Amino acid sequence: MNRLAEYATTLLRARHGRAFPLVLLLIATLALVFHEATPLANLRHAQFDHYQQLMPRLRDNEPVIVVSVDSQSLERHGQWPWSRELMAQLVNQIMAGQPLAVGIDMIFAERDRYSPEVLAERLPALSKSALAGLNEPDSFFSKALSQGPTVLAVVGVVGQASTRRTAATQALAGTGRGQSRRTTDPAFSRRFGQSTATGGRRRWRGSD
């Protein structure tokens, strides 16, 4: 660095006509090398982001990928909470990648508002034949969860409390997935928890 400064000083003192342009070129080069926040760096970063959108980098070595439900997802698929049938589509897409396990940190404490049972209460005018033709969202969700090891979020309570099991959790327990040895093994739980600290993040767009 000192040699470059001495060289620049020598050029400034020189009487040749080419000295001044060389000094400007040297100063510009030093600014680009030693200063990060330059227009060229911003352009390089923007170009890199564009390349990542065109050809995303493969993430085969990431221990955990976080699929987030963000504002764009809500605009595309509607307000939260989503139907269990839509959640089943999300789980199916994740399971297609053959993950070690799927962890869901959402609490499904309420009944699905699109289930035939709820619609019958809210819309008494619906005929039984119309309700019979509707899908049961919990059945789709439970079928998706039963494809592989799944870790579901629970709410801790102090003391004894009565809990209402949804159709999805009942079906999951019936398949044995909810008590699989892989997900209840302490060593697996530690590995699963530790890996979340370094996981990636992806936004779910779903299918049209």
TrEMBL record:
Query: From what superkingdom does this record's organism come?
Result: Bacteria
Q: Do you know which Pfam families this protein is assigned to?
A: CHASE2 (PF05226)
Q: Matching InterPro entries, A to Z? A: CHASE2
Q: Where is this region: Disordered?
A: 168-208
The CHASE2 domain sits at 40-206
* Name of the protein described by the UniProt record: CHASE2 domain-containing protein
Species of provenance:
Candidatus Dechloromonas phosphorivorans
